[in-house]
Write a structure and sequence with these properties.
CATH architecture of the largest domain: 3-Layer(aba) Sandwich
Strand content: 15-25%
Radius of gyration: 21 Å
Bound molecules: S-adenosylmethionine
Largest sheet: 7 strands, mixed
Structural class: alpha/beta
Number of strands: 9
Mean pLDDT: 93
CATH class of the largest domain: Alpha Beta
Helix content: 25-40%
Oligomer: single chain
Order of helices and strands: HEHEHEHEHEHEHHEEEHHHH
Strand order of the largest sheet: 4-3-2-5-6-9-7
CATH superfamily of the largest domain: Vaccinia Virus protein VP39
Length: 294
């Protein structure tokens, strides 16, 4: 393919020509720094065999660089108003397909099956919309798509959550989901000035290298993540209260206490103090109780 990337500065021109109004509510802070775009693609370690999923192509600035480096790019964009702009910026790139819709509502496994050969590992590369960063990462990490690497721009504060440990303020379900299956790395911090319009916060590019083996063994992965999410649902509540309100029914208090007792976990502890190993143990011990309930 011939190198024909239009300078990302064109993003500004394209937006103006199409009289496009950026929507803050959709996290539309477009990247206009060619150096950063190149570094993101470099961090993804793409080859001619790579299959890439991009979330939120916006005006297509990053998408063009991805299309130059990978075999195939599938880009999911919520804002259909960007269609004429993307038609223009991605013109000639036959290895890109853009799907319009909300990534959180899409069956990603289905999309990948339709677009890629079976079982091909997927690399996710994106400048994520910040209002939905956590749900998107949770969906990618706990879903069925065979993801190899994730390289994404996030708020600097979110980058801090990835490696957080119990007791730290930023420790939460995202920290556990990431550490369960990947080794997180901060590639670089990024100033506000490289976006149009400038966001209120600084950003960071992170890489999640998905490991073949998980940090802990659990009998039912989907239930493990439900338990983790429920335990952090209301951070100020104790573990037993969170489990009663968000996972089991209220009349199961005695059964919940019995399991916590058997595992040796004080019911007055908060979710934010539990290690990933304790969550794994709890997940296996709660299996019977959830099966009875459902
Ligand atoms: N990739 C472009 C860039 O780097 O300049 C745009 C990045 S911008 C931070 C985030 C993009 O995600 C926007 O284009 C926005 O419309 C899109 N978006 C927001 N919410 C989304 C969702 N739920 N599903 C898919 N795309 C979404």
């Amino acid at each position: 393919m011939t190198k024909r990337i239009s300078s990302p500065k064109v993003t500004n021109d394209v937006i103006r020509q199409h009289k496009f109004t950026l929507k803050k509510s959709l996290g539309q802070n477009f990247l206009v720094d060619e150096n950063i775009l190149r570094k993101i693609v470099e961090a993804a370690g793409l080859t001619e065999e790579s299959h890439v999923l991009e979330i939120g192509p916006g005006a297509g600035a990053l998408t063009q660089f991805l299309a130059e480096s990978a075999r195939r790019v599938i880009a999911i964009e919520i804002d259909q108003r960007l269609e004429p702009i993307l038609n223009e910026t991605l013109q000639g790139y036959e290895n890109v397909s853009v799907r319009f819709g909300d990534v959180l509502k899409m069956d990603l496994q289905q999309v990948i099956t339709e677009e890629c050969p079976p079982d091909v590992p997927i690399t996710v590369v994106a400048n994520l919309p910040y209002y939905v960063t956590t749900p998107i990462l949770m969906k990618l990490l706990t879903g069925d798509v065979p993801i190899q690497t994730i390289v994404v721009m996030v708020q600097k504060e979110v980058a801090g959550r990835l490696g957080a440990v119990p007791g730290e303020k930023s420790y939460g379900s995202l920290s556990i989901a990431v550490q369960y299956m990947a080794d997180p790395e901060i590639i670089m911090t990024v100033p506000k000035t490289v976006f149009v319009p400038q966001p209120n916060v600084d950003s960071a590019v992170i890489r999640l290298n998905v490991r073949p083996d998980k940090k802990v063994e659990v009998a039912d992965e989907a239930f493990f993540f439900r338990l983790v999410r429920a335990s952090f649902a209301q951070r100020r509540k104790t573990l037993v209260n969170n489990l009663m309100n968000n996972l089991f029914s209220k009349d199961k208090k005695d059964e919940i206490l019995a399991v916590l007792n058997a595992v040796g976990i004080d019911p007055g502890r908060r979710g934010e103090t539990l290690t990933i190993h304790e969550f794994a143990k709890l997940s296996d011990h709660f299996q019977n109780l959830i099966n009875e309930q459902e």
